[in-house]
Specification:
The chain is mainly α. The chain folds into 2 domains: 47 residues; 51 residues, no CATH class. It is 71% helix and 0% strand. It has 5 helices and no strands. The radius of gyration is 35 Å and the shape is elongated.
Length: 112
């Protein structure tokens, strides 16, 4: 069997190809634009990061500033930063309820 094509069918086929080519061109242009923006954004972010990390800090700290940093909320002065940070570990551990009461509260909340 022989199929004869008319002109409109061929025009539609070439239009489909043109549309596909147009989509490819638009996609390529969009990717190029986004790549440029990403490069520019990354470069400025990197520059800001490096600027924040580098350089000297000439801010003077007095002994009173250091003593204040080593003093906890209860007024106890600690010998070093590690001691100041871990000074309230026991209080935090005691405040956290890890008993079966939690299980009862969860069960009650789930069944209500």
């Amino acid at each position: 069997m022989n199929i004869m094509s008319n002109g409109s069918f061929l025009d539609e086929m070439s239009a489909s190809n043109k549309q596909s080519e147009l989509v490819k061109k638009l996609t390529a242009a969009w990717e190029k634009k986004n790549t440029k923006a990403a490069r520019a954004g990354g470069a400025s972010l990197m520059a800001l990061s490096l600027a924040a990390c580098g350089g000297d800090d000439d801010t003077p700290f007095s002994q009173a500033d250091i003593d204040t940093a080593l003093t906890d909320a209860s007024g106890t002065a600690h010998a070093d930063v590690d001691a100041a940070i871990t000074s309230n570990d026991a209080v935090i551990a005691a405040a956290v309820d890890i008993t079966t009461d939690n299980a009862a509260a969860v069960t009650a909340a789930m069944t209500d």
